[in-house]
Amino acid sequence: MSDFDAVVIGAGNAGLTAATTLQRAGLRTLLVERHSIPGGCATSFRRGRYEFEVALHQLSGIGSEGQEFSLRGLFEKLGVIDRLDFVQEHDLYRAVVPGEYDVTLPADWAAAVDVLSDAFPGNRERVERFFQLVKDTTIWQMAAMRGLPPEQVDPTYFRQGLRPLSEVLDDHFDDPRLKSVLATYWTYAGQPPSRLAFQDLALMLFAYLEFKPWHIRGGSQAMSSAFLDSFLAAGGEVRFNTAVEAILTERGRAVGVRLDDGQEVSARDVISNASLPLTYAMLGDAVPTTVRNDLATRRIGVSGFVLHMGLDATPAELGFTTSTTFVNADLDEDRLHASWHTLEPARGICVSSYDVAPIGFAPSGATHVSLMTLQYADAWDKVSPGEYARAKFAYAETLLDRVEVITPGIRDAIEEVDVATPMTMSRYLGHPGGAIYGYDQDRTENWLFRNSERETHVPGLHLAGSWVATGGFQPTLESGHRVARRLLRHQAA
Amino acid sequence: MTHRLAPLFEGYTDIQADIDGRPADTADHTAQTSRTVASYHPRRLALTVSGIITETVSSATFRLRRPDGADLPPFLAGQYVGVFADGTNRPYALSSGPASLDHWDLTVRRVPGGRISNHLIDTLAVGGTLTTTGPMGTFHHNPLFHGDDLVFLAGGSGVVPAMSMIRDILDNGLDRRFHLIYGSRTPDDVIFHEELDAIAADHPNIRVDHVMTEPGNGWAGPTGLLSSTLIKTLAGPLDRRMVYVCGPQALYPYALRQLEELGHPRRRIRFEANGAPADPTRQAHWPADADPGAEVTVTAGGTSFRTPRGRPLLDALEDQGIRPEAACRSGECGLCRVRVLKGTVHNAEEARLRLSDERFGYTHSCVAYPVTDLDLDL
After folding, report:
1. Structurally, how many domains does chain A consist of?
2. This prediction's pTM
3. How close B4 gets to chain A, by Cα (Å)?
4. A325 burial class (0-12, 13-18, 19+ CB within 10 angstroms)?
5. Residue B69: which region, alpha, beta or left (left: phi > 0; alpha: psi -120 to 50)?
6. Does the structure show a pLDDT above 90 at B301?
7. In 10 A of CB A233, how many CB atoms?
8. Does domain B285-377 have CATH number 3.10.20.30?
9. Contact A158 B8 (CB under 8 A)
10. Which of A217, A385, A417 sits opposite B40 (nearest CB)?
11. In this predicted complex, what is the ipTM?
């Protein structure tokens, strides 16, 4: 008999939901995590009087009570809903390109139409038509993913779903500023409108407009701890500060893992929340050729550069009226995307102010803000370790320069600031290139062309998380749960 | 791999051609990632002691190198490394500058009744091996908001990170003013005495003032504690200069009072963490009826043992041969985080817990005290 029914490698979002789902279904589950704390990206850390949210910018999909297909339903099923307090954001975002636009989009379909037609007169019907396509595309995509026969799917979805976002925007609008405002969330997928499938932006817009953007009191760490709590309460076992060194196989089937202390743990199933390259590397020579060939055509995705800041001023004093602001240099998204391979001054930043709707991380009268730009690790390849600190702080200054556009004088309020680079992401996530969304989420990287989540080509091995699904909180949380349920269904059958 | 629906989509052919036409990425990403992490933040390093310098009667500098002579991981002047010895570990600040990574210097001072510092000074010999962590800690100059005009109040071995900061300024030719006000007991106790004075004499942007509490007859310089009057006399108006403080625990509340008397804003003062509180019962929230000498039963890692309430949990666990990961041992870094399943701990003020930690029962064992019998999950 195996030591465990299932071993889950990595306590990131997907690892936590997978482990919790399995253990609550009665499988004896071991969760193994390299770090001292669960969460992966979904964590926080302390500096001085502040706690800093590491990764959660806006949680999509929570929705209101009773709303179907929401993440809230998943949280209820996994026994964590009562352990968490959600904080709602009332705006999607404020989008700013100096000299071009400064628009705050409310988190409501009709109100968003109003704001956009005020800011860009004459576009009301076009925006309405675009939003309708966003809704239809998302609904048909979900139906198609769930296996609805193709003849029952609206052909419009097949025409529009995989087109580049830029083309669909061009179909609807003439004003480049309006297109830019509507495409703003492209950075949440890391691919510019010319390379991002329309259905991916549609899904994001739908998830935030329909289910609203949320934060969590206590940050994403509260969520990670709540999942772990539920997992442990159901009888699960966890090992922190422990890395998995190898996935053990017998006649091509995964049968357990070897831990970094040399201990071998047998299990009927192994679920990996580690990166795809690392997971398959842990199989040694047992990697099937099909997998090797597939991985060779996939591209390590984008990482990020973040300033975690504690500011000795209120959000109002700083001029923050909304939680999430995007500030870009201009309307050229391809140029911005190209700049992520370099250390040229940051051209676009996402500014998250966690005290407009407070999550509890800043003391009274102060504000926790993060500034983030995406960036590929190769921007740092030429920097020697001895030059690293200087380069890091010099680049950080360019994000501060960019945020000064909306909060002049923000530097004077800094009480704490810590900087994370793609190297930092590599260190804490163990991901190649410090990738935060897995592989580059371009049009080749979705469920229509890749199916590592459904078919790992190694019996007994299952994969969950951003490397096999989509990046981001909601997709990875759902991926872990989906993989676990598939495993359970398979065992039942 | 392609889904059966994919060919129904407009654009399918182009995307499939993109995938098929890509040059194969055959890089060993896992090995690259491991190399990156190892060159910046290795978990452990086994280093060779290549030299020992006697600094004072009670302090020594250990020069550490990699056995293969390669560069050590980069660090920020002021940071520490964890040093493993005698069944436990302690943080020691690096005294060398970050410009020369072929070696690290650890400067260690004997502590009366101290365990690891004395052990290192008594037993470490040239050619010996020392296991350390990578560089850690947040007590360093941060150019994003610290400015270029700095004051450092040091007491005793608290001068070590200041030495590294000064070397950083000199070696890298930084345009930065640095004023060290360094309190020692006697002139013989001053670490880096000659070197500091020589640097100050040669570099107008570096100023060093020594202050003695037991000056003896030969001392003509300032004496006494690092009082507000003395700070004002030596440093002039502090304005918004960043003030670093590092030294014995007793220095911290005292220095804070002095700086506050001078009207210096709290957020322009940075203290280096310095261990668990010497006497946790002096903190206001220590439960009145809890005798720190009385023993309680702690159950963890499959065993139960008795330990006094006044002993930090981390030390108590190490007494039993249980060694949670740990580094700063001052409540900050969070590596020694454990979960309290049953019972109550006293979290010292030093504990930098997360908001959710309190809710889910986590504590930083280095500054947590078992007030009642405890069940822990490690």
Report:
1. 3
2. 0.97
3. 8
4. buried
5. left
6. no
7. 12
8. yes
9. yes
10. A385
11. 0.95
